[in-house]
Amino acid sequence: MSLPAARKAARASRTIEAGWTPYPKCSTARNRLLIDKPAGGCRLSQNSTFGAVVFCSYGGFWLSFWYYATHIAPTLPSETAHSATGVFLLAWTLFTIYLTVAAARIHRAMLTTFGLLLATFILLTAGALTDTGALTRVGGFVGLATAVAAWYLSAASVLASTFGRSVLPLGARK
């Protein structure tokens, strides 16, 4: 990580600790934990192991990434901090690989969402490990596409529950 990037990360860290974040409130670690952990428990009670693992694990991801970004990364030497971030993201990339394989057995919309999530993690990991800002930026944009795909899944679920039938197509599994 370059010195300007380290300064920018430290400034962002202080800003977040002061209570403001450039990300929507639903993406903050606190709110992700408050939403994802109970959602995971709910999915488990509905016998959806996949849903429970997804919600609980990625809720944990947001909490651990917040802690890493605000308490650990700022203490690392600026010339190696990017490598530590890359290793952190690599673990989540590997985890996302097997969830993507499982998502392929559900329906195409789920596979699309997890395919995009996997691409996001791959790009962010590669960007961090190589300290390449362009890869990180592209990973951020793919992450936004992942959010759109996840919102589509959410809308499909809410509409199907409300109307008592499938409204938005999810694509039959292969």
TrEMBL record:
Its predominant location is membrane
The superkingdom of the source organism is Bacteria
Q: Which UniProt keywords apply?
A: Membrane, Transmembrane, Transmembrane helix
InterPro entries (UniProt xref): AceTr, Gpr1/Fun34/SatP-like
Cell location: Membrane
Can you tell me where the transmembrane regions are?
Answer: 50-69, 81-102, 109-129, 141-164
Give the family this protein belongs to, as stated in its UniProt record. Belongs to the acetate uptake transporter (AceTr) (TC 2.A.96) family.
> What is the protein name stated in its UniProt record?
Acetate uptake transporter
Q: What is the lineage of its organism?
A: Bacteria, Bacillati, Actinomycetota, Actinomycetes, Propionibacteriales
